[in-house]
């Protein structure tokens, strides 16, 4: 099947590269914000985005290899591996992005910490925004692979 | 197909009743905790669990009707409606549960608010735990309906 974004296609490779780069950008912005380690949720965001970088980078390499050697990645065992990995990574990423977003909303609206210049709220928000984009791209990939598994 | 938990089956009805009751219990525990309205994340948890109660209760009624009149709910249009509703509700529930969990972890580990007897941290934790159970049951339902849609 030639579904958009399926493994071993150019669209699939672009999705993986997008996930990997947005997750890496999210880590970069978060690490550059001083004092992020005071909140457990932000440390968890970095860990979860790190996992997503590893997973997406690995699959991007696999897609690239399949594109260059014109091999077909769509056998049931490989696709079920992709499905399990994609779902676990997607749920962890969404959980990390949402818990960090909850903490940032608490900082800015409920506790009023963001009025102080010592807390880099805008960096936190940018990092969480990048994490949500990365999660959204991963969610597309995981729905496509789940659909492929059901249709194989 | 007679998949576990598919709409119009007894297992599907039990899943919906479970989602509905755990979400209602989560709202109940959160409302009984004094001071929950000081955090935006907890208010969002209540709103999202309220949506889940409505959605799961509606589908439980539909399942019950299908069981009693022995009708088949598995035509493509109905199943795609269920898929869209289930996914939207499941993502909102997970987001609400995770953002509340992030705030609770911040309260208990990073800010040390839970040492004060005025903040009912154990009620917050119980409510979030119930919300996660409710989300887990909804995730089973939504994967089953997505699988049915792909196989219809």
Plain-language structure description:
- The structure is a homodimer of 152-residue chains.
- The first copy, chain A, is an all-alpha fold.
- Chain A has one domain (10-151).
- In chain A, 79% of the residues lie in helices and 0% in strands.
- Chain A has four helices and no strands.
- In chain A, helix 3 (76-111) packs antiparallel against helix 4 (121-151).
- The longest helix of chain A is centred in the middle third of the chain and has 36 residues, at 76-111.
- The radius of gyration of chain A is 17 Å and the shape is elongated.
- Chain A starts with 9 loop residues before the first helix and ends with a helix.
- The relative contact order of chain A is 0.20.
- The mean pLDDT of chain A is 90.
- The A-B interface holds A 38-41, 91, 94-96, 98-103, 105-106, 109-110, 143, 146-147, 150-151 and B 38-41, 91, 94-96, 98-103, 105-106, 109-110, 143, 146-147, 150-151.
Task: Please provide a brief summary of the model.
The first copy, chain A, has helices at 10-32, 40-69, 76-111, 121-151.
Task: Indicate the structural class of chain A.
Answer: mainly alpha
- Domain count of chain A: the total is 1
**Quaternary form:** homodimer
Shape annotation of chain A:
elongated
Distance between the amino and carboxyl termini of chain A: 9 Å
Kindly report the greatest chain-chain contact and the residue count on each side: A-B, 23 and 23 residues
Strand tally of chain A is: 0
Largest sheet of chain A: none
Protein name (chains A, B): CASP-like protein
Pfam family, one (chains A, B): CASP_dom
Domain Casparian strip membrane protein (chains A, B): 6-137
Subcellular location (chains A, B): Cell membrane
């Amino acid at each position: 099947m030639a579904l958009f974004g399926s493994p071993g296609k150019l669209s699939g490779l672009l999705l993986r590269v997008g996930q990997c780069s947005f997750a890496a950008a999210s880590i970069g912005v978060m690490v550059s914000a001083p004092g992020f380690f005071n909140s457990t949720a932000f440390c968890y965001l970095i860990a979860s985005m790190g996992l997503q970088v590893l997973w997406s980078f690995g699959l991007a390499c696999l897609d690239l290899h399949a594109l260059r050697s014109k091999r077909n990645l769509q056998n049931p065992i490989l696709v079920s591996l992709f499905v399990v990995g994609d779902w676990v990574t997607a749920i962890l990423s969404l959980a990390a992005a949402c818990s960090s977003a909850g903490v940032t909303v608490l900082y800015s609206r409920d506790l009023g910490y963001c009025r102080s210049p010592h807390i880099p709220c805008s960096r936190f928000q940018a990092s969480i925004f990048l994490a949500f984009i990365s999660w959204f791209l991963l969610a597309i990939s995981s729905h496509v692979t789940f659909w492929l598994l059901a249709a194989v």
